[in-house]
Amino acid sequence: MHKIFPRVRRVSSLANGRVELLGNQYPTDSVTNSHYADFTHISSLSPLVSPFKNFDELSFPQDHPGRAVTDSYYVNKDLMLRTHTSAHEVEVFRRGEDKWLLTADVYRRDEIDGSHYPVFHQMEGARIFSADAAGMKEVEERTIVIEDVPHVSATNPSQPTHDPLYSELVAQNLKLSLNSLMLTLFGGAGVGSGAPLRVRWIEAYFPFTSPSFEVEVFFRGKWLEILGSGVVRQATLDTANVSNKIGWAFGLGLERIAMILYSIPDIRLFWSTDERFISQFKDKQITTFQPYSKYPSCFKDVSFWTQQDVALHENDFCDVVRDVAGDLVEDVKRASGSLCVFPAMTPLQIDRFVHPKSNRTSLCYRINYRSMDRSLSNEEANELQSRVVSQLKEQFGVEIR
Ligand code: FA5
Ligand code: MG
After folding, report:
1. Buried b / exposed e across 197-225, counting CB within 10 Å, b at 16+?
2. pTM for this prediction
3. Any idea where the FDX-ACB domain is (predicted)?
């Protein structure tokens, strides 16, 4: 790398007191790649897109789970609500934009917990350069290259049509740009209190980028994912008629950013009309949210057999719960095996029990009812629970155990 990029230099560790970028060795004062002003900002695009735009144009394989009706909201087979802002990548690149941000509402059938909601907002950002020595010189001028921290690896490879050096450089520019964004966002006064905010990069996989990365922030005792990113797949750029370019893209969850900035503990609060919530956000100031009260929760379990031929997806279950109880549900967890054992902190990921003789599947869920604004009575929770049960029977023919 030295020969091609003579400015390459080794830099040492970082911390700016407020934000700690773990595993990245950029000194804070060098993270200066922010020129947000010259990114074109796009919004107001229709949320209704074709599955072709949402998936095919982005190289999603035919059997990708995201395409299923259990994961996405379809109007019909040719029209759906976009599940991510990446659905617009090809059209924006095709317009000739090479440095852009796009914000939009996106929709997913997803699990129920404090950081997932079926409608949320993403900001997509991308930057592409000429895939030649001149373009790479531009990247290099804007990047502090760290020679001993590989961003491209056997498990997170560069693409076959990319020069691995170009890929490495673009990946480093991506990380530097996002680190700079995070330092600007989270490094300001009033964000969090006491200990610095811990931020880490991890390897990821997306059908439309390689290498790919995610960023997580340590928030309220857990790592919270805030964005996905990577080097744009050449097929995407080819489809957009900009084959001579190479670059990066990211998509970040705006509610999650706001949760971290304002210390908002639960994503449902963004939909609250309670004055005690709304009145806390004034004059574009970042303030720490003062919880007015945490009302008691009330959990109810439901166990049932599903019919042999009717698969009941977790997201189907969650949809029934949302339809009946809306924001009165804090989270849904699934129990392990045939016994209703609920391990703490393990939402929706334990194996189901399949009866060896009848081949029927037994499922057991715990629904945690809690209002954000008031005390929920046990009678009210019982009433909601019985409506959930009857919807399960009606829509999926389940047999309650
Ligand atoms: C994507 O949506 C990719 N399109 C991101 C991307 C863009 C990758 C460009 C590469 C290049 P993901 O499914 O991880 O990735 O979602 C991105 C972010 O959206 C997450 O990190 C999270 O912050 C937010 N997010 C995802 N699901 C939800 C949800 N149900 N509720 C709230 N926020 C969510
Ligand atoms: Mg993700």
Report:
1. bebebeebebbbbbbbbbbbbbbeeeebe
2. 0.86
3. 293-401
